[in-house]
Amino acid sequence: MKFVEIVKQYWNEGLTVVPFNSNKKCLVSWKKYQTERPTLAETINMFSSPDVAYIALICKDGIEAIDIDSKNEVAGQKLAEGYGKHLQFFKGGSNLLQNLVIEKTKNNGLHFIYRTDSPDKNTKLAYNPDGEVIIETRGEGGLLFIAPSDGYELRRNNFLTIPTITNDEKQLLFNVARSFNVRGLKQSETVEEVKIKSKISTNSDIQWSWDDYNSKDDVLQLLKNEGWVELSISNSTWTYFNRPGAKTKTNVDASWHNKEKYFYIWTASDVNFESEKGYNATQVFAAYKTNGDLSQAAKELFKKGYGTHEIEKTKEKEEVKETKKEIKHKSKILDFVKSTKFDVNAPIIEEPACLFVEQGGRKYKTGGFGMLGAIVGKQKSGKSTATGAIIASAFCEGAKKLNFSLNLEGKKIQYYDTEQSGFHYQKSQSLIYKMAGKTQNIPFYSAYHLRRLSKKDRLNAIKHFIYEEENLGVVIIDGIVDIVEDFNDLKESQKVVDLMLKWADEKNVMILTILHLNKDGIGIRGHLGTALQNKADFIIEVKNNKELADFKISSRESRFAPFPSYTFTRNGYDGMAIIEGETVQQVEKPKVKPVEPVVESIQKMPKGDINQILF
Q1: Domain boundaries, the chain
Q2: What are the DSSP calls for 320-359, one per residue?
Q3: How does pLDDT run across 124-151, given as a tens digit for each residue?
């Protein structure tokens, strides 16, 4: 009810206003009022709600506003204050400033409100260096929160006397706003130079000639030498210029921002520049001295003593470094290839195995260090149980679990969960300990939870920990599909599988991945499955036979002799997996609360770019 009287006055002056609550959500359907006007009774009824916190003016009938958003301004810029000060230095600017309706916003910005005979839609006029909008208009059909809304305060004139301004005055308001734009003004180097710069950007002693020149005000003397005349109205923020050969010697034709270091052209008075556009110092130098060639400008500035490095010489040095690096890399590759040359007289050494399947009194070699393997199956087929049994066997020094035996030979295991929730991740890890009958942390086992990370960051994290861990023997990735950007992309899938092979070979670890079968229960999922089937050293398949209430484990692919298929079931006591002649659960459930297993979660790591966290 607090706004009813004022909105009556607004309505009587022809304004269309609608109510918003404290969350800045409109309390009515307002779109129709962009073209229609509510009656006085409708307006009073809208604003009679106790939830009304803001009055929003619909910009129509020629009403527009310059909206300055101070929350995105450059530190120390004082944008709202600077806009008004800047405006008054232009012809007619002071009188225009006196006539506009001006209000302070909730974020300490400003609104400059007026009417025009040529209204436009909402228009963005200026950005900060990060590309965030700092000045824009509220045009035809737009919304503008106005006083006396909470946090909004009239500073000059009022909404009952909004002035109509000329098109020239409107253009002046726009141009002054555009002069504060600093997006796209910082880079004056070419694409090639950016690449060279990025290669050695870690060297803090390097200062490029264009960066050095851009940081100074030396360009002002160049402008004066080219005929630009500095005006007496210049201040600590702006240096104002009258263009070369101007008939009116007091007009502001360009301005130099003393803090942000850029030259803004107001009128197309010089063939070297475009109007209503900003230029940094190097761009100005290039315009006058090198016919706009930025590379040549960088060389000329270096000759004049700016910067510590010349781009061409630095480029040559970098090319030499790259050539040496390539030669070294090629030499390393050739040495490796030569080492693999076949010798008919050399003894043939069979690959040792670390993973076995024991059945019928025989141990079948299944996987070894330096190999890539996979466990596949449909959803809920028992893949996690089979994987857990393999790990549990290692916990028990290679003792048989679901017929699996994993002999680590004193090495370590890493486990990566990429898809489960935190609860199910903890639950599945606890189950592994239960299968092994262990209640204390296993020192050679580390599990990580990567669900929160992007696919790229998961891959980087796994690589980091694999190469950082000493004496690593087995790496389990559950599941591999969550580290591939697109598992139906052949090149992307082959790339990741090749990476797994490289890690397995270089670190001499057995990498065991988990992957779903297609819904038909035959093919492995996507192009990733095809690539894995073609490259993997062994693939174990798990099937759930719901009719017989059992699970079948079989050798789908293997470099070794395949093991015979066998089945396991679950007991009715706690659902633990059992197999004839073997009980996975070796000890009774402890009466005291067991220590939680060592399950290290990336979710508990500091938030941010994983590359910064890890590398």
Answers
A1: 4-178, 204-307, 310-338, 369-614
A2: HHHHHHHHHHHHHHHHHHHHT---TTSPPPPPP-SEEEEE
A3: 888 887 778 889 999 999 999 999 999 9
